[in-house]
Specification:
The complex is a heterodimer of chains A (about 200) and B (about 500).
Chain A: H1 8-16, H2 21-42, H3 45-61, H4 72-90, H5 99-107, H6 121-138, H7 143-154, H8 159-166, H9 170-194
Helix pairs in contact in A: 1-2, 2-3, 2-4, 3-4, 4-8, 6-9, 8-9
Chain B: H1 10-18, H2 23-35, H3 37-60, H4 70-81, H5 92-97, H6 102-117, H7 119-122, H8 136-140, H9 157-166, H10 192-195, H11 205-215, H12 219-228, H13 233-241, H14 247-254, H15 259-273, H16 277-288, H17 294-307, H18 313-325, H19 329-338, H20 347-360, H21 365-375, H22 378-400, H23 404-424, H24 428-452, H25 455-487, H26 492-505
The chains are: A mainly alpha (about 200), B mainly alpha (about 500).
């Protein structure tokens, strides 16, 4: 079997046995996922690139500590998350940009969804309206809840993977997600009523 | 927030959104959705929100470029592997700046361990021990205490091991006079075999002094002194239930009672000692042992902070309580605690209350005074080590999860706790705890910094380790002088004067 055909966990085992090429495959496999993941936290591509690079170095440093019963992906994301949170802590003087502000900066104007695959202008307008409301509602969430939203919906992770990354149980994440969605729903309803 | 009858299906609902709900679950949920319009509406909204949120997430990443980090990462790995004593770790700092000097880092790390080790100085390393670093407590003082359980799932064997090895360990080689036999004195001729059988109210000053002299050569003798200086639980119950016992004696006796009983008497003592920081601290400690008394403990710690705002220990305990709950705010509280100047576990007050309990139990007043003076700070050593031990264990937990920054933050904070304790110490045992804690923190920081290649941090640690070595040297000298005193004939008058002095100012001041 070629190096590229091996599973992540097999590659990590090979890395532990001194096969450095295994790390190169893992980096190639996950570098863009990790970068995107870090961008969600840091809102800055250059910083995210640095952290993504450091994440793989930490994988190398900590390779012996990898628990073979775990999956590689949540483990590496856990490392990336810790590095991102620490980076945010270090840069605490620069407040975390709101999701609304961030999406506005990235996309042009609030509520606009470029490249969305919606059927017609009416539906697109409705989606834009809904998303604008959601964006505002997201900014009322505490940081922990926003992180769960990012992981679950922006990164499309399962509750199980999120639980592994943030160090809790799958059930706890589901309960939290349910609470968050209800909070968002109630915030969106309130916004609509206030219009 | 409104609750609905279908809330019990929230797990199913979330699994459904996750796409992980099994067929039976889907069938169950569909029945509920069909029967309950509110549930149907909510479910629909959730699905719509999921689509919208996913679409928003995609939009946010539209401008994120594709990267190729393979070369940079592998280059850093190769560089790391080419270093002396290859550990193979590299850090962002190394990749970004590539301006560190390899040999210097490793030399620094080794120098720190050498300074901390002190093995060459005292040669106390014992066969079969894994650690290359003997605990200061082991090399400078007689031991006592039993290791208490580590927090579940935390790897703290090394620091706990120090405490295990304390029992029965006395380093006579450290006492300048240890190699020569003690001279005859007024308290000699004691049959040590018999002293074990004595009840505390039968003890004489002669037995206490002779036992202390014996302790210069025999670690077990110190254990005997400790036992005498502390009521057992039966004696303590006798004191607290005796009519007319002074409240101070009850507070002292509470030290020997299990938390559930102790807190009753300590709470009662607050009427008389509401302004006494020690009583508040003791009560908070006991309340913290019971998770159900958490709020009451927090109240006592808050009161303590008000009574003695310069003492950081209350903040450390609050931070520890938060760590136990997994509350991330603990790190901020640790930073707050670390920013203060002084920490004290009130060993002097504890000794004074303990003396009252011994007296209430019928011990001869001179014996009680001397015994209390000789053993002051021992309980606090245990307590402080335990607090630091647990904090460091959380740091190790973070380290195991590769969160090196959080781990370093905790280790640095614990080092500060050690520094603060040196400021607040009145007893040599407190000073010892302070140094032990600093040593353990530096050792862990050294490990992380070496791994991350943080040369700057290693340089700082080298300076700190050197300073710590000075502190250790002073304490070694102090214990040596103390042993010297008890190796020679001791005059009763001087002894009582010394005990008064110790219970007034602590033992660190006795040679002043």
């Amino acid at each position: 079997m070629s190096v590229a055909e091996r599973t992540d966990e097999e590659l990590l085992t090979a890395l532990c046995q001194g096969e450095d090429a295994a790390l190169a495959v893992l980096v190639g496999r996950y570098q863009n996922d990790i970068l995107r993941f870090c961008v969600h936290y840091l809102k800055d591509v250059e910083r995210a690139k640095d952290i993504a690079q450091e994440t793989f170095l930490r994988v190398f440093v900590a390779r012996e500590r990898f628990d073979e019963r775990r999956k590689f992906r949540p483990w590496v994301l856990c490392i990336a998350r810790n590095l991102c949170l620490n980076e945010l802590k270090r840069k605490r003087t620069v407040p975390m940009e709101s999701l609304d502000a961030y999406s506005t900066r990235v996309r042009g104007r609030p509520g606009q969804v470029p490249g969305s695959n919606l059927d017609g202008p009416d539906e697109a307008a409705m989606a834009a309206e809904r998303q604008a409301a959601l964006e505002q509602a997201l900014d009322t969430l505490d940081e922990e809840s926003r992180e769960v939203v990012i992981l679950r919906f922006f990164e499309r992770m399962s509750a199980r993977d999120i639980a592994e990354i943030v160090g809790t149980t799958e059930g706890a994440i589901r309960t939290r997600l349910h609470r968050i969605l209800r909070t968002l729903r109630s915030a969106c309803t309130e916004q609509r009523e206030n219009l | 927030m409104t609750h609905f009858p279908y809330d019990k299906y929230q797990d199913d609902l979330m699994a459904f959104l996750d796409g992980t709900l099994d067929a039976a679950g889907r069938e169950r949920l569909e029945r509920v959705i069909e029967a309950d319009p509110a549930c149907r509406a909510e479910c629909h909204w959730f699905e719509q929100a999921r689509e919208d949120l996913e679409s928003m997430g995609d939009a946010m990443l539209e401008n994120v470029p594709q990267v190729d980090l393979v070369e940079a990462v592998m280059g850093a790995v190769v560089e790391a592997k080419s270093r002396p004593k290859t550990v193979g770790q590299a850090s962002r700092k190394e990749v970004r700046t590539a301006r560190y000097v390899d040999w210097r880092r490793w030399a620094l790390a080794a120098a720190i361990l050498l300074v901390l080790g002190l093995g060459a100085f005292y040669a106390v390393k014992r066969a079969g021990e894994e650690s290359t670093v003997p605990p200061y407590a082991e090399v400078v003082t007689p031991g006592r205490g039993t290791a208490r359980p580590a927090p579940a799932g935390k790897n703290i064997e090394k620091f706990d091991d120090i405490r295990n090895r304390l029992r029965g360990a006395i380093s006579g080689s450290l006492a300048p006079s240890a190699e020569r036999a003690p001279e005859e004195g007024p308290f000699d001729g004691v049959d040590f075999a018999k002293t074990d059988e004595l009840s505390t109210d039968e003890l004489s000053l002669g037995e206490v002094v002779a036992t202390r002299r014996d302790a210069v050569f025999n670690g077990e003798a110190l254990g005997r002194l400790e036992r005498w200086a502390r009521l057992n639980d039966i004696e303590a119950r006798g004191v607290v239930s005796s009519e007319g016992a002074a409240m101070a004696a009850l507070v002292g006796a509470a030290q020997s009672l299990p938390a559930a009983e102790a807190k009753v008497y300590l709470l009662a003592a607050l009427d008389q000692f509401s302004e006494d920081p020690y009583v508040r601290m003791e009560l908070a400690k006991r309340l913290l042992e019971d998770p159900e008394s958490k709020e009451a403990a927090e109240m006592q710690l808050a009161a303590l902070r008000e009574l003695d705002p310069e003492n950081s220990l209350a903040v450390w305990l609050e931070a520890l309580a938060l760590l136990r709950e997994g509350d991330a705010a603990a790190l901020d509280l640790l930073a707050e605690a670390a920013s203060l100047d002084r920490a004290s576990a009130y060993a002097l007050d504890a000794a004074q209350f303990r003396e009252q309990a011994l007296l209430a139990n019928g011990m001869d007043p001179e014996v009680a005074r001397v015994l209390t003076a000789m053993t002051g700070g021992i309980e606090e050593y245990d307590f402080l080590s335990e607090v630091a031990n647990e904090l460091l264990a959380y740091g190790k937990g973070y380290e195991e999860q590769n969160d090196f920054d959080a781990a370093q933050q905790i280790y640095e904070a614990v080092y500060q706790l050690g520094v603060q304790l040196t400021q607040g110490a009145q007893f040599s045992q407190e000073q010892l705890a302070a140094l032990d804690i600093q040593r353990a923190a530096i050792e862990l920081l050294n490990g992380v910094s070496s791994m991350l290649g943080d040369t700057e941090q290693l340089e700082t640690l080298a300076v700190l380790a050197e300073g710590l070595r000075g502190g250790i040297g002073e304490l070694v000298e102090f214990f040596g002088r103390l042993n010297e005193v008890f190796s020679q004939p001791v005059d009763t008058g001087w002894l009582l004067e010394m005990a008064d002095h110790v219970l007034d100012l602590g033992d660190l001041a006795i040679f002043d």
